[in-house]
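Hi everyone,

Forwarding the result from last night's run.
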Amino acid sequence: MVVLQWVIFDVILTVKGVCTMSNANPVLKYAQRAQQYYMMHLDGHKQKPSKIDFNVRQLVKHQSTSSKAWRSSDVRQTFLQYFKDRDHLYVHSSSIIPPKDAGTYFVNAGMNQFKPIFLGTVESTSEMAQYRRVVNSQKCIRISGKHNDLDDVGKDTFHHTFFEMLGNWSFGDYFKQEACQMAWKLLTDVYKLPKDRLYITYFGGNEALGVRADLECRDIWRNIGVSADHIMPFGCEDNFWDMGDTGPCGPCTEIHYDRTEAGNATRLVNTGSPDVVELWNLVFMQYDRQANGQLLPLPSKHVDTGMGLERLTAVLQSKLSNYDTDLFMPLFSTIQRDCKFEAYKGRLGQDDVDGRDTAYRIVADHARMFTVAIADGVRPGKHNLDSKLRHVIDQCLYQSIQILELPPGILARLVPVVVDILGDAFPELNRAVDKIQNIVDGAEHRYRELLIKGEEIISKICTGGTLNGNMLVDLQDGVWQKTGIPLDISLVIAAKLKIPNIDIEGFNKIMDLRKEKQRAAMITAAGRLLSQQDVVFLRNEGVPPTDDHYKYEQVWNQESLSFGKLEPGKVLAMKDEDGFIDQANERDVFMIITDKTPFYAEGGGQVSDIGTWENKNCIIAVENVQETNGYIVHSGRVVSGSVRIGDILQPRVDTTHRQQCAVNHTATHMLNFALRNVADDVTQQGSRVTPQKLVFDFGCSNMSLPDTCLDEITSLVNGLIKDKLDIYCKEIPLEQARSVPSLVTLQNEVYPSMARVVSVGIPVDDLVAKKDTGVRASTELCGGCHVDNSSRVGHFVITHFEGMKQQGTKRVTALTGNAAMQSLANVKKLRLSLDNLESMIKAGKSSDTWHKTLTSIEKQLFNEEDQVLPKIDREELIARIEKMKVKAVSHMKNVQKAEGLKQVLEKMLQESEGKKYSVEQLNEPQTMKKIVAALGQLSPDKPVMLFSGVPKDKAKKTAKFLPANISRSAKQTIAVAYVPNSFKNKFSDEQLIKATAEAWVTHLDLLSNGKRKTIGSVESKALTDGDVHFITLYTDDAQPLQYYMTHAQEYIEKLNN
């Protein structure tokens, strides 16, 4: 009866949910009365389902006054259209991959793509420089850094790894008044949220900062009509926003929604209560924070607002949980179809006893995150964003496999559901469904494989019941196998193996040290750049941006590169570690800015030029060149003399350095082209071009690439080199460049309105005109330095290919020109050394001699600093040397056995000298046949009988076939008799029957009373003048080995007499 009553109660709750959505008030009231009755009736029963603990009271809270049933897609579109109707330009969401040099975190806020505007670093010729009013819905991921929601996902109803940030921006256009008015009208007039349920917070001031309360904002809200008791001041933590320790910042105002039954949430605002939801944050960027903490007014004020789609949708759909909206429920339905457990119930905390509702939320949330991330070009891997994606997928798989016990392939089956929900807003998802499914299937296969392999490895290394920090790090680094085992998987395995001590703290300390080293390197690099405050100072001082178009005025001669007569530069600014200076003296380390320069600033993956600035009074060594907001900053030191502001200096660019950079940069473009012909869906992730080598990072939809791809890539690039293709570079309008077929651009890169096209083999004008020249080669937007013809690259070899057989970012390292040719010469030299080594081993040279040669070759193979080799050849040489080592070891064993056999023979011959026969005991039964053969050759006229005990581990498994009169503890002994023909010829036909090898061992058989097993007669190929017979005896205390040897001697003695 009670069960039936609970079923009725569930029906009531369902009816109420539907009524709340549709605003069917009469039915809703009936459901409320029914609920009260059943609550009273069931109150006496002690065992209540966890449904009661889900705060039923909250289900009768405020319902939206809107009669519209809001779908999430309608919520999003309404927001975008509202602002487009108010002259806002729609700018599509940027990729969740941040721009280069923007750190290793995902894009986590709507404003990220507009940072150049806020920082004043936007190129004046770029499209972004024209933005005034903008609206969009930005894809955001928060799983690292300051904003990290990963650990909270699943534990509550509102944290997510991926979410959409609805936002509108004003860049120097409207400010507080218009921003507040538009926000209020949208929420109350369009979305129809009740005004008395909305609470406003504003910045209450901070004496330490010297910033007063934002009373202007407070008064704007009052004038709009918000009740005074619904407007509250808060401090910096809640209502002052900044981008970092320095830079643009300002007060913000937030709009909160009240879900409480009473409708009076003043005391709950900003307390973290789930009854009050922060809906919208409006940031007013009006200050520029200096390094000393001082806040200076920005010359141009901006508005940056953000509202989470998931939270807004939950409010408009009258749901207490974001997970109960149409953004997540279809995912739960798909999971349920494959799950043997009950459907999602929305339980939290202690109510979720088995953790399955938490698992539902985590799997659904993470499926959204990895679908979006992979569509934008991230691949599960070992470094940076790739490692973070892998961590999320692994967490998702853990919940799917260990908690929900879902069958293989569930993650791939969730992908189309995510795309169906989000695809209209983000069409890029629709184009990537197959790719995403293939990648997550590969990730799941790897996860399950690592669980098996990892268990084997951890079982071996963890013998003392402890997995220490170093072990966990080594597992992750792949010390015991090529594919590393992440901490998450190690912990799952450790739990299964019931390992009591796991040193996670030690692991974290080691990883923190690594991060600290990386951070120190980043700080060192940042020291070569101008800060935002430096840029403001220079602009205020009237220092113009540097004219650096001279960097492209290189001339290619028959053999090398040179510059014509370079324009001198005038010193406009200098800076050392203490600030801007007027003079620098000998040995001073500083930065210098001139009005014009031919030096190439680091960019596009290419390192900067090096060289000198000189005049009759000084020489300045230029060691690094960087660009900041149009200023070219030369970092270096004064070699001699001194330099002052206003001095005129002559530039001297190191042409050898520039030439090799240009060679490797062009080779990088050709490599990119070759990869796109070999792998699927290649996306460039980064590159590093130096005079010594080139490094190219890329992602592709292939989980692994075949071994043959190395040959294909190398052949394609060297083919372009042999074709002697001209390299064309030309600036054209960006929109015109984007129309060029097969144009390669960097994802999430902001290009200037005039873009530089670099084409291998086809004139840029022909590309624009779409002329078919019959040439298929690389075409990219690039501001780097290049050669004039592909033949100048000389030759191309790949020395490393990281991640070739794994998911995630793959990295190719390659050499060109003389360095490539030297690597091929290194291969030829090593092959000759291996040939000589092989000959030495075959010739039986002493191990000391050839072991030294082997060590020398291995050192050359693995010491990459001294001996760079092409990857294909290195692997072939390593495989060859491994086979050779096996052969060498086998050869050594044979030599050692032969040496031991020789010593045994010499001893036996010595001891039997003068005797007519020999009966001996040996320690190694496996050598008996060889010894008999050798004795037959060395002493062909002498009969021999040998005995040897068999070690227990070598004994034949015959115990179960033993006769009843033989003890199971009896030992096996092998006896072999050799009787030469010359010995048998002494006997008559009647006597001969006793003189055969078989007769000798038969005699032993009679002695053993059946305690033996005859193996049979074995005719040795080496013994053409005699016969051999083997027998296996069982010796024990009553009949030991010596017993048989004594009788054998007596038997042969009688024959001789």
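Residues 794 and 817 are 4 Å apart (CA to CA).

Cheers,
N.
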